[in-house]
Amino acid sequence: MTYPAAADRGGVALGAAAYLLWGLFPAFFHLLGSTSPVEVLAHRVLWTLVFMAVILGVVRGWGALRSLPPRVWAMVGAAAALIAVNWGLFIYATAIDHVVEVALGYFIGPLVSVLLGVFVLHERLRPLQWAAVGLAAGAVFLIAVGDGRVPWIGLGLAVSFATYGLIKKTVPLPATASLTAEGLVLAPVAAAYLVTLQVAGSGTLTGHGASHVVLLVATGPVTAVPLLLFGAAARRIPLTTLGTLQYLAPSLQFLLGVAVYGEQMPAQRWVGFGLVWLALVVFTVDLVRSRSRRTVDEHVPASGHRMFDPRA
Questions:
Q1: C-alpha span between 223 and 218 (Å, rounded)
Q2: What's the CA gap between 301 and 286, in Å, rounded?
Q3: CA-to-CA distance for 156 and 227, rounded, in angstroms?
Q4: Beta-carbon count within 10 A of 141 CB
Q5: DSSP readout, 98-144?
Q6: What is the distance between the alpha carbons of residues 47 and 76, in angstroms, rounded to a whole number?
Q7: Taking the alpha carbons of 31, 248, 233, 171 in that order, is the dihedral positive or negative?
Q8: What is the domain count for the chain?
């Protein structure tokens, strides 16, 4: 498929905006440091649902949820649980100044998705993909040895988001309706928790000033807007382009952790991250080559001669 240049530029801009916003998430959630990670997570769930409910109303998408069978709701529930774990780990890591580990998780996330394809979908990996996975495994081992502990936050972020993506592929809903449905599943638990906190006098929604309330409410649009930008980009540009853009987010997170928040990067950690970056280069090269090969095959008829393209 050939994409018009204007659509490419617009799509790339939308995708880049989505990943840049995701990359700046640690800076936003650092502003909520006076609130416990679980309370921030509960507010994020509720206000994202409110924001998405408004969006779904504007696009008249509620009909997609009214006739969902129990099997689909079960898949939505599984996806909701995974995204709650992912959001919770992210907020917790930001609160304890482990932003570099967050970056590690999102750097290796695509490689975890590849492994899930092998073990769950029984896909076969190409040699370069195996090489990328091996380099990433070596990187995690080096970082674990250097830190004296397994980077469980980064691994948890990678596994939860990759598994979430795997389940989302099976949910027959548009992105806006799917995120709203996940909010509907999580909202009762989040609301009950926040009410309990407020009744006990431990909640921070009140008593911390109007700016704090605005920040808590903003967790909704802050969460949803990049997802909407990403959805719009995905419709306009090839997945290989979108896949390459995804490294903008962890790159920004890494820079924030090292340059802004002053997290320590001993030599062994640098070597580990170097292996991660090398793995991503290998993975991306393989992805681009594979897509180019498929494009050539699509333009070669049975006779073996390439089809003439007047736009070439």
A1: 8
A2: 24
A3: 21
A4: 13
A5: -HHHHHHHHHHHHHHHHHHHHHTT-----HHHHHHHHHHHHHHHHHH
A6: 18
A7: negative
A8: 1
Q: Angle at Cα 273 formed by Cα 136 and Cα 87, nearest 5°?
A: 80
Q: At 304, is the secondary structure helix, strand, or coil? A: coil
Neighbours of 5 (CB within 10 A): 8
Measured distance CA(148)–CA(266) in Å, rounded: 12
pTM reported for the whole predicted model: 0.85
Model confidence pLDDT, tens digit, residues 169-193? 888 888 888 899 999 999 999 999 9
Give the separation between CA 148 and CA 268, rounded to whole angstroms: 11
pLDDT in tens, 65-82: 888 899 999 999 999 999
What is each CA distance from 155 to 140, 219, 270, in whole angstroms? 9, 24, 18
Could you please report the per-residue DSSP string of 39-58?
HHHHHHHHHHHHHHHHHHHH
Residue 135 is assigned to a structural domain of this protein:
yes
Dihedral sign, Cα of residue 12, residue 14, residue 15, residue 19: positive
Residue with token string 């962890």: 250
Q: Which residues constitute the domain of residue 229? A: 5-298
Quickly list DSSP for 208-242: S-HHHHHHHHHHHHHHHHHHHHHHHHHTTS-HHHH
Record the tokens describing residue 21, joined without a space. Answer: 């916003």
d(CA 40, CA 195): 13
Contacts with 60 (C-beta within 8 Å, 6 or more apart), sequence order: none
Q: Is residue 107 part of a domain?
A: yes
Residue indicated by tokens 């896949």: 243
Residue at 90 is within a domain: yes
Q: Is residue 209 part of a domain?
A: yes
